[in-house]
Each structure stands twice: as C-alpha cells, then as structure tokens.
Amino acid sequence: MKALVSVKRVIDYNVRIQVKPDGSGVVTDGVKHSVNPFDEIAMEEAVRLKEKGKITEIIAVTVGGAKCEETLRTALAFGADRAVHVKVDEEIQSLTAAQALAAVFKKEGTEIFFLGKQAIDDDAAQTGQMVAALLDLPQATFASKVEIDGGKATVTREVDAGLETLEIDLPAIITTDLRLNEPRYLKLPDIMKAKKKPIEVVSLADLGVTAAAALKRVKVATPPKRSKGVMVKTVDELVTALKGKGLI
Amino acid sequence: MSKILVIGQQAEGKLNSGIAKVVSAAKAVGGEIHVVVFAADGSAAAAQAAAIDGVTKVIQIDRAENDHGLAVIVEPQIVALAKTGYSHVFAAGTTFGKDLLPRVAAKLGVQQVSDIMAVHGATSFDRPIYAGNAILTVEAPAEPCIVATIRLASFQAAGDAAAAAPIEKQTLDVSLPTHTRFVKLEAQKSERPELQSANRVVSGGRALASSENFSIIYSLADKLKAGVGASRAAVDSGYVPNDMQVGQTGKIIAPELYFAIGISGAIQHLAGIKDARTIVAINKDPEAPIFEVADYGLVGDLFTLVPELESKV
Questions:
Q1: Domain range holding A103?
Q2: Which of A160, A181, A219 has the most B C-beta neighbours within 10 Å, making it the best mutation to test the interface with B?
Q3: pLDDT tens sequence across B50-109
Q4: Is B135 in Cβ contact with A229 (below 8 Å)?
C-alpha cells in the first residue's frame, strides 16, 4: 500500500513573527523556515507504518515555490522513498492546494494520505478535509492513534468531548494531531541519503488544476500587546494580589 | 440581504453552547439567520436554537445517520441546503466545525474563512494567523457563498429571544456514504480539568528538571482545581507527554488564570497563552521573557516557592 504525506514549508515555530510595516504580510526574508511540525508527525506516522510492514512506499508531496525543495529533502530524510513537488510561484490558498494534492493522490494511486491537522503559518486547518471532500473519501481528522488492518483504518480522534474512534474504509485521508507520535531526530546518514532520492517537479497545469478564487488579503496587523504587569517579592504578596482580584 | 445558515452543532439533545456565539457573529453580518440541526431526533436542540435572540428560523433535519454528527454524513446535507440561496454558512470553531466545514467549502468550490474573530461587514473579516501573532483581514468573494468558522473566544453569546423562532422540519433527498463508521466516544478520564477548557492552568517548564519533580506542579494544580500543561522544552526533555504541551505547536489556551512555572517564555509558548486573562510567572531568572507578559511575576527558586504557594492558596 502506498502512502502520500504532505509537508509544508513554514516559518520555524521559534521565530518571533514580525508584521511588515506596510501591512502586506509578515517578514519572511532571512527568517528560518522548517517543516510544519504537524506535518512531521504525519511523516513519522507513515514511516512507523512502513516499519511495521503496513505501507510499502511513502511519497512526500508539497505545493509551493523553489525553496520547498528543502522541505521535501527533510521528508525524504525522515524516510519518504520519493517526492513530488507541485511547483507554484504565486501564493496559493487551501482549496487550490487541496485540488493539487487530490490530483497527486489520484495520479499516484495512493491509498492513505497523512497531513498535519494544520499548518502553523496560516492556521487554517482545512486542507486535509478539502482533499477528502474533493475525492469523496473518508476522513479522520485530529488523529491521536491510527491502526491499519486490511482495507480499513481505525482512528482515534482528539475532539472537544474527548476521544472519538472511527472506522474508515481505505483509501482515506488522515490529519495528525500532537499526541499521535513524537517525530524522530534526523540522523546525518539519512540526511545524506535523502539527497539522492528522486523529486518529481510538476505544475498545477500538469495536474489539470486551475487555481480557485482566492480570499483577498486586505492587510496583516500586529495584535494588541499584553502589557507588563507587576513584580511581587513574596508568595504572600502574590496570594494577596490574586485573592484581591478574586482569582483564587 | 444576507441569508445565513448556522450549523446547529448538538450532542445528545443539547445544542452546543458555542452556537449562541456563532449567532452573535451572524448578527454582526446582519440579515436572516437560520440554524439547522442535524440529529436522529433534533427536537430538543432545535427548541434551544429557536430561543436564541436573532435566529429567524430553525431547520430540523432528523435522520438516523445523523446520530453521531460525522462530517462525511452531515456535509452533503449542508451542501444541498446551502445551495438553496444562502449567502453564508457559519459553524463554531470547535473540533466538530473544523472537521466539517472545509468539506462544505470544497464541495461549494470556495475557500473557507477559518476562525473569524471580528466581522467588518458581510464579506470582510479578521482572523488570526501565526497562532495569533498577526491578524489577517480578508475580503471573501460574495459568490457563490461564504463559508466560515467562528472563533468562539472572540464573541459574546447572543441572549434569549423574546419569542421563539419557528421550527421547520425538513427532509433532504441526499444519499449518504457508508465508508465511515462511528465506533465510540470516550470522555476525558482525567480527574483534572481538561487543559483547553480549564479556568485555571498550571504549567511547568524545563526548570522542573525531571518528570518526578513535576509532582509539585500536579500538586499545586490539584489544590487549585486547575488543568496541567507544560512548555515544549519540558516535553522535549521527556518530563511529560506531548499532549500537555501548551504553545503554538501544542495547545492554544485561554484560561482565567495561568501559572507559568520554570518557563522562560519562548515565543512559541507565549503564542499559546496570549488570551489567558491573568498570567503568573515564577522563574529564577529575572530577565526571563515570560516576565514581559506576566501580570504577576515572582523571582526565585520554584522548588521552594511552589510548595509554599500550594500551602497558602
């Protein structure tokens, strides 16, 4: 069974986000980028299933500009066998990305698709569900446990009310939540090996995808700042202050 | 004029408390507001929806398959309904809404507006990006339809209606998939409040130095009836499991009272707590960035201060 895993290049989670003074976006030049952390969890899950013999081949996919090649190299170092780079130069939004990913999924004849539950840049949390809808396939979002048996997957999901378990027929789309696994640290030999693995570059046109109408980004602003509070000297002072505010 | 369809999320006959907040967001857009309830028997939830101020009609769609509110089951029904002339489809930014609504958007061929935190007009909205470190204003194409989830923390619940809105039972001729089956729902077993909904949260960081030492965090949390969280550094050091992580790569929380103990205040942690009402920080380093955002800061050795705090609250 072939698995597809999507990885997105995002600003590293340790970077302090700076909004451009003209409100056109956030500063990305010269800023450290990494693989979206939730996508690393997706990648790790696919690799573990391959190690267990449930998956035979892992294909990593990304939709983005030239710099996304490094993101795919990271996925290949994790254990993807090969990669597909849907190269786009302009900014694209979730539905267009989903159309491209759905097209790759179909073209590759994959049976299971892992995506992070959201990317930490746009925080939209839409793409996996959109891919599932476009392909009319089952989805299990926010997965914290995945078991594959025959043509089915049993997935535990993190929902507001607790943990929900679904049984879904394959092929299916699964989006990964934090608790699913802890991604491995990449080892140098794997990073070296990844450099030799193949990356196929395709365009939206190659996939027969026309970009969907976009939301117009009017402006990006900095949120109101929290003001610095007071320093207390002792636990007693702290307790008095909290009690005074009715907080404890 | 706008005609807004609000997805009336319910479970076991109870309308989700977030729906009154979604109705507030819909009122900010203005126009007709219809709440649709999908259930095996939605009578109780429909009555609750009809009692929310601003709702002009409730549509009740009873069907056995709707019992567990599965996204793949509800989505085709919403799509069929949305095509009958709605300008907006709104759902709560709950796990239910987040799971469901992008499917609806994809089927209608539109981008979804996720997590609306402010409404400027029928097509213009603010939403947080980068874990709330930036606010994006978007203008959504009005045609064919605007599909959006509402960030519940940003809206007050609409009040009670003077007179209940009419409830209309409908049947939709839509075939539903059988590829997805509900198995079970386990409610959180922990005695402690769930991290994301807790009023108070106590989090520990790398300075705890071991998983054994985390016991003082649990102990203080239990005294305060608080949920327990941790920084990514504490998780990466193996002191606590990943699901306790608070921050951009973990859980984003908004408790009334938050204790950051032995947490330096990395950007990614701060992103997860910026909506906390009151932040208390205890750290031995007076220069720690956490003190820049804390409402109350206390410098000192956490191994002395935390037990003392526990004994005095």
A1: 2-244
A2: A160
A3: 999 999 999 999 999 999 999 999 999 999 999 999 999 999 999 999 999 999 999 999
A4: no
The fourth-level CATH superfamily of domain B200-312 is TPP-binding domain (3.40.50.1220)
CATH code given to domain B3-169: 3.40.50.620
Identify the CATH number of the domain in which residue A73 sits.
3.40.50.620
Please indicate whether, in this complex, the C-beta atoms of A229 and B132 are within 8 angstroms of each other.
no
Neighbouring C-beta atoms of residue A190, cutoff 10 Å: 14
| ipTM score over 0.85, yes or no | yes
Check the CA dihedral B242-B245-B249-B254 and report its sign. positive
Q: What's the structural domain count of chain A? A: 1
Residues of A in contact with B313 (CB under 8 A): 239, 242, 248
Q: Which of B72, B131, B266 sits opposite A120 (nearest CB)?
A: B131
Residue of A nearest to B135 (CA): A221
Cα dihedral value B25, B48, B99, B190, nearest 10? 110
Q: Which residue of B has its CA nearest to A13?
A: B268
Predicted model pTM: 0.88
Of residues B75, B266, B296, nearest to A229 (C-beta): B296
Q: Same CATH fold, B200-312 and B3-169? A: yes
Q: For B179, which of A129, A142, A168 is closest by C-beta distance? A: A168
Other Cβ atoms closer than 10 A to B63: 18
Tokens 């608790």 appear where?
A: A179
Interchain proximity B111–A231, CB inside 8 Å: no
Q: B299: which chain A residues are within 8 Å (Cβ-Cβ)?
A: 231
Long-range CB contacts (< 8 A, 24+ apart) of A145-151?
A145/A179, A145/A180, A146/A45, A146/A49, A146/A174, A146/A180, A148/A1, A148/A49, A148/A54, A148/A55, A148/A112
Tokens linked to B13: 């006959």
Q: Quick one: tokens of A163?
A: 């943990």
Per-residue tokens: B244: 């306790």
Find out whether B2 and B31 touch, Cβ atoms under 8 Å. yes
- Give φ, ψ of B140 to 5 degrees: -95, 140
Could you tell me which residues are beta bridge partners of residue A2?
A57
B146: which chain A residues are within 8 Å (Cβ-Cβ)? none
User: What DSSP character marks residue B245?
Assistant: B
